[in-house]
Every structure is written in structure tokens, then in C-alpha cells.
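Holo model, 2-deoxy-2-amino glucitol-6-phosphate. Inputs:
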Amino acid sequence: MCGIVGYVGPRDAPALLLEGLKRLEYRGYDSAGVSITNGGGLETRKAAGKISKLESVMNGSPLHGTVGIGHTRWATHGAPTECNAHPHHDCTNTIAVVHNGIIENASTLKAQLEARGHEFRSETDTEVLAHLIEAEYEDDLEGAVADALRQVEGTYGIAVVSSRDPDKIVAARKGSPLLIGVGEGEYYVASDASAILQYTRQVVYLDDGEVAVLSRNGYQVVDLRERQLQKPVTKIDWDLEQIEKGGFPHFMLKEIFEQPQTIENTMRGRLLLEEGDAKLGGIDLPAEKLLEADQIIITACGTSWHAGLIGEQLIEEFARIPVEVEYASEFRYRNAVVTPKTLAIVISQSGETADTLAALREAKHRGATTIGIVNVVGSTIARDTDCGMYTHAGPEIGVASTKAFTSQVVSLALLTLKLARMRGLSVVKGREIAEALQKLPGQIKQILDRADEIEQLAEEFKRAPNFLYLGRGYNFPTALEGALKLKEISYIHAEGYPAAEMKHGPIALIDEMMPVVFVAPHDSVFEKLVSNVQEVKARRGTVIAITTRDEEALEGKVDYEFRIPETIEALTPVLAAIPLQLLAYYIAVKRGANVDQPRNLAKSVTVE
Ligand code: AGP
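Output:
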């Protein structure tokens, strides 16, 4: 949601914080601010809009100091204005707080503080923290923060500085991601490693209920009772180049073109071609635990949920285990049937999505064994699941998920192979799947080599007011994903539907103005899909078809066709997703949309 960065050390903090905020901008970009403590007290600069707005404010009125905090916001409470931008101050302007999360009892605390004479300037829940710390302030900042947080309900990742305790940053976490960066005589706090990667790779992940105190002499981590905690230091294996655009105009296009490599990375060391099986070191559950499982629940949000729908079909077809796919935001409050024989597969690119994290904890609470399929190393969901596998797609900066999706589907295929071979799938069938997986990177490359064809297609449809995406079987979820990509970045209303479901309502939308994208590989349901194409054509709809071979049955019924290579039916979504990602990208670019930071969205939704 929001992005937090902080620094204490010998360097000039304002420039460093600004650099860090630019790297975090994909987390939220509707307003930003920094606060610095120096001999002159506490100074703050804020601006509504993107980091570039804050940068010009800071150029106009420079700050100096070597201790500070910064924040880029995704509004939850209070409009995206300068007044509601973080950091927020207390009454005496000696305490500044930046926050990622939601204070659920903010209005109660605010009323109590106002009754004690505190005056509030913003509409935010966060400002309550500044006044609460002020009210609890006695000897030192960390004591005041701990006392304040014991009264808070909700989620937070916070960083606090004060001119009353100037050479210090106090940070705390409950529900929202936060890590400490360990440098040579300098220390950082950040929502994720991308903000500080150019300075250090040594990080300490904070867990819920932990408070970190950073000063020039070092850092310590305590709990809310200020008891010392020992925390491991982890080395980040990403490099800076991976979070740069690498010559592409947008992170999204770079990430689409990275997929031959990222799929290779997802499978590296895991695909056992000869055995037709998969080796998944991270899923270190006893075999009987996997064999006795009589139900699988897959839970996730957004694009990850679409990958889950494909996982359902893979697991049911090859491993013969019943699967339920649950929206995490629904599952967390539903009285779902979960037993100790339930495996709960939790899918998340960021590993920080609040609804998915809560669904994970609910499944665990009900006795399920939890398996994480996560991209961000060291993220909360990765650390909270019983076991799991990283998708190894590398950092995904573009808000619209692309390479993470295809890596999630390939990860689910590898997990399916492992479960299925344990449950009697033949080595021959296993090899067929393994060989098809191995061919994917090359096949994706073939598709990307013809991206210009999709760009031309986008030119035709850049002004379309609506879109319909249709698919069957494994490719109904692909249609959903295609529609989501277009919605997210071009703001065109689009819907994905099972093709046969169309005649039960959406067919009313069809006319010559409605482009209909059919995901139409030559698979077991192709014949059935042809009749759906005819239904659209009969209503003069414009048909765009993603096909795998010359189809006599489609002659004269398709206005635009894009061919993808053939693979086994279960893996066609990985290939069919690529032209749909490109179509959304090029249409959005041609409409002048901000592709990497679409309006109203954020890369990881860390609040409910
Ligand atoms: C996808 O393009 C979106 N960014 C969004 O739907 C995303 O998939 C969803 O928020 C889940 O995120 P996660 O995979 O990081 O948990």
C-alpha cells in the first residue's frame, strides 16, 4: 500500500530518502513527504501527487540532516491532499510519524486525545499515532512509541523521529511489512528492500509486535514490552539492475519480455524430466501428509486468484484431489470446511496482501497445512506458511502483474506433478507434462518476437469502450486475467467469462462496437467454443481469436487472429496470457495511461 523509508547515519538523509521513495512509488503514489531531525529541530516537507512533486518542493526549500523518514501514500483515510500526506506531527511539532496500514480504533483514540486538548490537522487515522506518542512521551522515544502502540488496534508499519530524541528512528510492525537495512555505521528502515538495495543487501525482517530502535551506534529489536529480541540478518539476492527498466519504456513491458527467463528460473532445479516428476525442496512436508490430504483449498486475490483457478484444474485433472478456489477476502470470514487433512495453497506475488495473509492465518487456525506460492523472498506470507515455493520471477515493479502470473501457473504445474506422481500418475504422463513445461520459455520467446502484431491490433481497438474476454476450461481463467489486465491499466471496462456462459446474459452486450477476445487453442473444448464464436458473430460482434493452428471451423468467423505455439491443454494459459498482456499494455500506452502506476491501484494491498 504505502511505502516507508528511513535513514540514520553520516550521509545527507533528504537525498537518500527521496531516492528510496522513488523506488517505493509503485506501492502508492498519491502524496508523499519527508521529515528530518537536525540541530534545528524537526523539519518536514510534503506534497500531494507523485514523488516528483515532493522533489520540486524540496529543491525549492532544501532540507539538511542525517536522520529522517519518508513516505509515499496510497490513501485509505482522507483524500490524497498535502494536508493528509505523511509524515504527521503532534501538537508540539516535535514528533513525526509515517505509517502504512489502518488504525481501526483511531476515532476512539482521537476523541480521547481531543478531550485532553490535542488538536488535529488532518483527516487521517495516522495522525492519532503522533498525538498518542506525544501523550505517552516521558524519557525516550522508543518508550513512548511502545506505550502508544499497546493502545492501538489495527495494522501498522511505522517509523517515528523526534527532535526531542534527534539521533534516532523508532520503527514498529504489526500486519504491514517492514525491514531494517544494516549498513556500515548507517541504518535504514523500509517497507521493502527495493528502497535501500543500492546501499545495503543486509536486512532484518521485522515480525508482528516488534519495535526497532535505530541510531548511529547500531540497532536493536525489542517487543512491545521492550524486551530484547535476537533477529537473523538476511542477504538479499536481487541486484539493482533487476529493479531498473533496462531500456524498456515501462517496467510492465520489461517484465512481459522477461518471461522466457523467469519461467526458466521458476523451473530451475525442480523439473525432473526423466522421472516425469518435480523436486520441490521447499515443500518439505512428510509424504504421508501430502498423501493423506483429501481436500485442497487455494486462496488468493486478483491475478493470483486467477492462477489459482488454473491450479484447481491442474490438480484435479492429474492429482485427483478435490480443490476449492477461494477469494481470500471472502474465505477469511466464511465458515469454510477445513480439516487437518486440508492443504491450503496460498498464492501471492508480494507475499504481503492483507486479505491473503488473513486467509492463510484462518486456514492455519482451522488446522490446515499451509503451502505458500510466493514471489517476494522473506515476505510475511512466505514466512508464515508451513512450507512453500518461491516463484523466482524476480522483482515485479509494474503494478499490473504479468511475469508473476505465468510463474505462479508453472509453480502450480510443478506442485501438481509432485502430488500426481505420488498418487499414481504414470511416468509417461509425467514426462509429457515435464517436457511441455521445458518447452515453454522458447515458445514464449516466439510469441514475444511477434509483439508488433499485437501493437497493430491495439491500434485498432484503443478507443473501444468495452471488451469481452471468453475462454473455456483451462482458459476461462486466462480470459479473466486478460480482462483484468486491460481494466487495470487502460481503464476500459472489460469482463472475462466462460464462453458458454455468455448466452445466459452477457450476449446482450454484443454488437458491432463490442470486441470479443476468444482464447481458442485447439483443445478438448475447441469444438464447443466454435459455437460460441458463431453466437458472437451472429450479433455482429468483432472477434479476436488467440489460436494454436489453422482452424477451418473458424474461417469467416474471426476478424483478427493471433497464433500461439501448441502445448498440452493444461499449459495453454501460460502461452495465451502473453498476447493478452501485450494487448492490454499497448492499448494503455496508446491511450496515454500511466502503465506502471495505474490510477487508484497499488502493487501490494496491505490493508483489508
Ligand atoms: C494484478 O495485476 C494486481 N496487481 C492485483 O490484482 C494483484 O494480483 C492482487 O492484489 C494480489 O496481489 P499478490 O499476488 O501480491 O497477493
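DSSP finds 18 helices and 27 strands in the chain. The pocket of 2-deoxy-2-amino glucitol-6-phosphate is lined by residues 301-304, 348-350, 353, 356, 399-401, 488, 604-605 (CB under 6 Å).
Archived with the compound record.
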